[in-house]
């Protein structure tokens, strides 16, 4: 922690909001005031149930969505205010790996074209691009023979490897991994995760890892940001969060992780979360978790709790911490 705080963050997400106007009187607040930092070389995981706004946050950071409010600062520059030339550099420095390796690759392009496209856009000659594609395919466990094939000729795991090679092709510093293993067979998931870890070390990469599988997050991330209905409810170093989850939602989420050891599993008490995740359309101006929280009080239904530091590097948004 102390080493990290001495540096400037590589990415600063500040009070980020993304709203969608669904009708004249209805606003879907997919992301509503999210803030966190990402330091060079680390993996920050954003977790939460589907619909919590984690993927929308990632898409706003890489500018696939225009944020409604707030800032994303990348290496000291606000990404919403870049000039054309700066935008080209930004696209090279920040890349994304998508959840679905089936739909994220153009089915009419060969692997050589898919992986080499970014290289050519950044000025590489045909020969340079071909050599680099060959090298990248080796790095992700594929080979030269795969270059002339089309995406449908590969398994899901192999397609995700192609997606990773494409992201790496322009030598990025920061990669947003949006649920990169959730569409893959369980047997393949560990291979892809280990490969991402190895590539991070080799290339000095920084990751934002968006996921709902909390066992994987514990294994891959340095820090965790827990989101609920468009807001951050807790964030901390991974070890601290898994050892001392403090927000009632985080406690319930972590209690649902399956435990391999039957003795530990017997002593672990699962905390059920009642009801379904509420609609993010016109959310009430109070704690977003209030309707499902076993510890909710009157204040929780009247006031939104602020995200505050409860221990060094550990933040939580809950009236219980006040
Ligand atoms: Fe539960 Fe209240 Fe804390 Fe929200 S603020 S998590 S409702 S105790």
Can you list the ligands bound to this structure?
Answer: iron/sulfur cluster
- The assigned structural class equals alpha/beta
The tally of helices reads 11
**Biggest β-sheet: strands ordered side by side in the sheet:** 6-7-8-3-9-10-12-11
Return residue spans where pLDDT drops below 50 for at least 5 consecutive residues: none
Fraction in beta strands:
15-25%
Percent of residues in helical segments? 25-40%
**Could you tell me the radius of gyration in angstroms?**
21 Å
Mean pLDDT: 91
State the oligomer: single chain
What does this entry look like structurally?
The chain has 322 residues and is an alpha/beta fold. The chain has helices at residues 2-6, 54-61, 84-93, 111-121, 126-139, 156-168, 186-203, 214-220, 238-243, 248-255, 262-267, and strands at residues 11-23, 26-38, 43-47, 69-74, 77-78, 94-97, 174-178, 206-211, 223-228, 231-237, 307-311, 314-317. The strands form two sheets. An eight-stranded mixed sheet has the order 6-7-8-3-9-10-12-11, with helices on both faces. Strands 2-1-4-5 form a four-stranded antiparallel sheet. Bound molecules: iron/sulfur cluster. Iron/sulfur cluster binds at residues 247-248, 287, 289-290, 293, 295-296, 300, 305, 318-320. The site of iron/sulfur cluster has 13 residues, from loops.
């Amino acid at each position: 922690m102390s080493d990290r705080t001495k540096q400037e963050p590589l990415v600063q997400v500040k009070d980020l909001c993304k709203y969608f106007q669904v009708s004249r009187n209805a606003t879907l607040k997919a992301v509503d005031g999210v803030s966190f930092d990402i330091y060079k070389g680390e993996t920050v995981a954003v977790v939460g149930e589907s619909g919590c706004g984690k993927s929308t946050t990632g898409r706003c950071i890489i500018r696939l969505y225009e944020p409604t409010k707030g800032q994303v600062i990348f290496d000291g520059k606000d990404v919403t205010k870049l000039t054309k030339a700066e935008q080209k550099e930004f696209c090279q420095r920040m890349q994304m790996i998508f959840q679905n390796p089936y739909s994220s690759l153009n089915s009419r392009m060969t692997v050589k074209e898919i992986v080499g496209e970014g290289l050519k856009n950044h000025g590489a000659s045909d020969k340079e691009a071909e050599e680099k594609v060959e090298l990248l395919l080796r790095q992700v466990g594929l080979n030269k023979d795969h270059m002339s094939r089309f995406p449908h000729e590969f398994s899901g795991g192999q397609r995700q490897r192609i997606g990773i090679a494409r992201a790496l092709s322009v030598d990025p510093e920061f990669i947003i991994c949006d649920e990169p293993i959730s569409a893959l067979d369980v047997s393949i998931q560990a291979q892809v995760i280990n490969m991402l870890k190895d590539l991070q070390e080799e290339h000095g990469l920084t990751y934002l890892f968006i996921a709902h599988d909390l066992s994987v997050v514990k294994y891959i991330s340095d820090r965790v940001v827990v989101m609920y209905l468009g807001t951050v409810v807790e964030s901390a170093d991974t070890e601290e969060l898994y050892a001392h989850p403090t927000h009632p939602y985080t406690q319930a989420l972590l209690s649902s992780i399956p435990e391999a050891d039957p003795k530990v599993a017997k002593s672990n008490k699962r905390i059920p979360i009642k009801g379904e995740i509420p609609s993010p359309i016109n959310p009430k101006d109070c704690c977003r978790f209030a309707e499902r929280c076993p510890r909710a009080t009157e204040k929780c239904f009247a006031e939104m709790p602020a995200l505050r530091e409860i221990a060094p590097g550990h933040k939580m948004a809950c009236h219980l911490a006040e």
